[in-house]
Specification:
Layout: H1 2-11, E1 17-21, E2 33-38, H2 43-55, E3 60-63, E4 69-71, E5 76-82, E6 90-96, E7 99-105, H3 110-119, E8 122-123, H4 135-140, E9 144-145, E10 148-149, E11 154-160, E12 166-170, E13 187-197, H5 200-217, H6 237-243, E14 250-251, E15 254-256, E16 264-266, H7 272-290, E17 299-301
Parallel strand pairs: 2-5, 3-5, 4-17
Antiparallel strand pairs: 1-2, 6-7, 7-13, 8-13, 9-10, 11-12, 11-13, 14-15, 15-16
The structure holds flavin-adenine dinucleotide.
Flavin-adenine dinucleotide is lined by residues 27, 61-69, 83-84, 106, 131-134, 136-138, 140-141, 143-145, 187-188, 218, 220, 224-226, 299.
Length: 305
């Protein structure tokens, strides 16, 4: 820890939060301390930081809005680079062919981008209304809902690799898949998205309607990381979990939601261990009943293999 502290302070002049519980930075509200947490406010700062972390061999991890992570109770023995508030400028729109291009930095909240677009009569991200987290996290997770996903809107992404080199990648160079962008070890610094011109009122009405449907079907009053498991091809994870009679199943403070079986919710005082035990129980029961192995969509951080 003292070695990490000395190395980090030799490369980073900004504020550092030491030993902060990751429960504070994840919507599921569990997770032990990160050794250090820093928040770069510009691309130049981010590049300098990544190069320094690499040079000193310090372990690090990017966290955006923390709405799709589950950090172990023992925490993360490295540097968390937070890209969920700063580095959030939106620029554009710029007309290009039939489209309107908007470039947005990774730390901007997806909700803010959706609202910003709607106000300007820019259509295309309505599906994302109500998805929490940052734009960077949404690109990495290829976040989607109601038949839409980020990959359909992305024109280019500025990335930083583990060496601290930045590059502009066209959409075609990114192997997007279901809830994945396929470039595991890169950082999203910003993304350019294509919108189309629409009517502000109509866009806002669609967003409101989709948000209403979410409130009706999802347990939004309790901490969670959204859908815990990926949908197996052609199947709905929530339906399999419900049919295995697991709604309401509880371990410690972690429970399979009664409202939506693919949401594992924190009903109070849960630990990461509670969620991991519940995750395994759900996986075992669904495998026994249907021969289907559910894979977590949530990114699990800091758990030894
Ligand atoms: C109530 C609720 C509803 C949800 N509904 C949906 C939904 O409808 N559809 C859907 O797809 N998801 C949904 N989610 C999950 C989650 O909101 C999305 O996956 C979201 O896009 C994650 O963004 P984030 O910034 O919170 O990512 P984080 O949780 O911070 O990080 C997720 C992963 O991305 C990496 N990451 C984050 N930012 C960057 C970056 N800039 N560069 C490189 N790596 C990065 C992290 O290291 C981690 O591996 C929901 C979650 C909740 C809590």
């Amino acid at each position: 820890m003292t070695e990490l502290r000395a190395k980090l302070t030799s490369i980073w002049e900004g504020d550092v939060l030491w030993e902060r519980p990751m429960a504070e930075y994840s919507t599921i509200r569990v997770g032990g301390p990160a050794a250090a947490l820093v928040e770069p406010a510009s691309l130049a700062e981010l590049l300098r930081l990544v190069r320094g972390l690499r040079q000193h061999g310090l372990p690090w991890l990017v966290v955006g809005g923390g709405s799709n992570i589950l950090v172990a109770d023992q925490g993360f023995a490295g540097v968390v680079v937070l890209l969920g508030r700063a580095l959030a400028t939106i620029s554009g729109p710029v007309a290009a062919g039939d489209g309107q291009l908007v470039t947005v930095e990774a730390g901007c909240s997806l909700a803010k981008l959706v609202a910003w677009g709607a106000e300007r009569g820019l259509s295309g991200l309505e599906f994302a209304a109500g998805i929490p987290g940052s734009v960077g996290g949404a690109v990495v997770m290829n976040a989607g809902a109601w038949g839409g996903e980020m990959a359909e809107r992305i024109v280019a992404v500025t990335v930083i690799d583990r060496q601290g080199e930045s590059a502009d990648l066209a959409r075609e160079a990114i192997p997007f898949g279901y809830r994945s962008w396929g470039l595991g070890d890169h950082i999203v610094a910003s993304a350019t998205l294509a919108f189309t011109r629409g009517e502000r009122q109509a866009i806002e009405a669609t967003c409101r309607e989709l948000a209403r449907r979410r409130r009706e079907t999802q347990p939004l009053g309790l901490p969670s990381a959204g859908s815990f498991f990926k949908n197996p091809p052609g199947l709905a994870a929530g339906r399999l979990i419900e049919q295995a009679n697991l709604k309401g199943q509880r371990i410690g403070g972690a429970m399979v939601s009664e409202k939506h079986a693919n949401f594992l919710v924190n009903v109070g005082g849960a630990t990461a261990r509670d969620f991991l035990d519940l995750m395994r129980l759900v996986q075992e029961r669904v495998a026994q009943a249907y021969g289907v192995q559910l894979e977590p969509e949530v990114r699990i951080i800091g758990v030894p293999e």
